User: What shape does this take?
Amino acid sequence: MGITLGTASALVALSTAVSAQTVDYGTLEQIFGQPVTTSATGTPKLASDAPATMEIITQEQIRRSGGADIPEILRQLAGIDIWRYGVAGVDVNVRGYNQPYAPRLLVLVNGRQVYLDHYGMTNWNAIPVEMGEIRQIEVVKGPNAALFGFNAVSGVVNIITFSPLHDDVDTATVRVGTQKHRQLSVVQTFKPSDEAGVRLSLGGFNADEFDTAFDRPELSQYSQPFRIDPSRRSASLDSLFQVTDNGQLGVELTHTRTRDAEFSVTADLARAEYEISSAKVSYTADTEAGLIEAMAYHNRLDVNLLSPSLRDYNLHNRVSVAKLQDVFRVNSAHSLRLTGEARYNTMNTLPTQGADVNYAVYSGGGMWDWAIADGVTLTNAARIDKWQLSRDGEPQVRFPLATVPTPFDDEDFERDYIGLNINSGLVIKPTNVDTVRLTYARGLQLPSQFMMGFLEESSVPARYGLPFDYVIYMGNPTLTPTTVTNYEVSWDRALPSLDADMRLSVFHQIHENLMSPIGSNPSGLRGNIADFTDENVGNSRAWGGEIGLAGKIGPVWRWGINYTYEIVNDDFTVNQRGASYPLLFEGGTPRHRVNGHLGYTNGPWEADLFAHYLTGFQALRWPSRGNPLDDYEAAEVSSHLVMNGRLAYRLNDSLTVALEGVGINQADHDESASAPTERRLFLSLTGKF
Assistant: This one.
């Protein structure tokens, strides 16, 4: 038997391990009757059977969402936090703790990371996939580094595209809309033989940035000069070849160029231009020793960034990753997965040039999936990361740093750290309609390259009347990684009488050694110099729960509603100079969030309406006077309701026209301390050929 698929009975019994990157998802969905994931354990499971809290967004849900990008699709899930402040500018996190450049969410496309190591953030505008080539989006909540990999501490967004070998996807979409939006997306699959498949996708858009922000006095002082009209150009090639009866070779190439305004790590508006390229090769073999997958990829990132608090930066980040895993069954009750990973990451010191900050991470892990009894499964996974930091070269500093040494030298960069990530999940099916899941998770967030390698010296304008002449902002190579621990109980129940499903989850999270970007002053004044640096600032705890219902009414109507409650308590250390850290989680996490959906289908007509409501919270922004000793300003973000919608008509088997809207219920609203979000309307034409 090759690695494509075995018999249906073998799959239903989960007796054959299947790779998430080469599996025929369409056949699996026919067998199981609903979407299937192989990401968490390496074997096919329903989302309700996974040893972590997971939701799967299907291709049909993506198509009918009316959202112009992935964050708008994620908005409708319980426990997902969205801060939109621009056409392309958005931050996403799971279960609160959102912040500019949200650094704790692992985002993958077919197993390759697309979150960016320089700040540990995700530029959602730069992800090199088109909506039409996404098969499903898997959203996993809570720390999952032992199951999914490096830095998955608040959650995982795993984007799975259609297989170029198993699926024929040939689509084109033209979209125009308000803010002078112009967009084109094309996906084409080529199959030169039964053993080879290639998928090519091209896409891009141009638009005008939101105008509303620049009518507001409290924002215009530092927002107007950094306004930039967003754009995106993206191309990707994904190929898969059956090179032997039991082996498949995959090759992926991507390139993306974007520009957008983004809410930077120092909580002010920045203009950024990105150029990102990647190359990935993978080989999967079904052997007597199990299903073995080898993967290697290289990501190249070049960014030009300009903001009020940061100078004009030219940043270069290179990431190389090699991974190997083996999934095999010991017997009918026990499956094992062994994993190894090596990662090398390098970035130039910025804005002061002349040196590179590097780190290598060597990881080893294992997973044990034990079918204890009929309807009872225990999955335990552990991963050990050894992190090695170094710096090459000497930063070419200007005066006065040439005569006043910085607190950190090369010896501070010569350090190692060993950490443990754990995931454990007990899944119990007491009846044929009930699933109970008890999980424990521990994940590590390592410092970003920015947090370790930033180094800037600048003069302070005399108009502030400050008792020093210069400011030094710098990263901190001695930071301790943040540890996130999660305890959770969840219950899924099918409701056949309502043709619906219910999910209830209760969780408790502990965050230790939280890391703050620039904003503290531990060294105080040194002559005419003030030092500001990144620092571990303390701990935080969160308690919360989620409940959701989704179902159908006959063949015409679909509906869904979910509610999230969360309370956060911060326990931060006191800043010696009184200037706030740019972190605010206790007051910055909405207490209540509600999502609702109503969908209708009748012949060629489709209609969907989505509602997203959350209560007010606070969000920090850079001091409006520009004085680095001023407190960050806590802006009040009012309770608000966001409604998205889509009305579509299928002209024939090949063409569909749709009217789509984002935030259609009001002209604009605030979602963060940065620019307000405006209403957007689109008209699209999609063809299948």
Summary: Residues 25-32 form the longest helix (8 residues). The helical segments are 8-12, 25-32, 59-64, 70-74, 145-148, 217-223, 410-413, 449-453. The chain has one domain: 8-688. The first strand starts at residue 36 and ends at 37.
